Amino acid sequence: MPRFPQVRDDQLILGLVKDFDTLDASGMICTIPLEDLQTLSKPVSEVTPANP
């Protein structure tokens, strides 16, 4: 079973699994590009210029 979170192909991969005990566990996998994470981690003033 894969371990999460993991980074692959410049994306952060998060896995949410409902029940680890069953083989047909329902869940979902979310991928977030690392570039987007870097943008989100910056203060808002650095991402968008303030009104002059």
UniProtKB/TrEMBL annotation:
This is Uncharacterized protein.
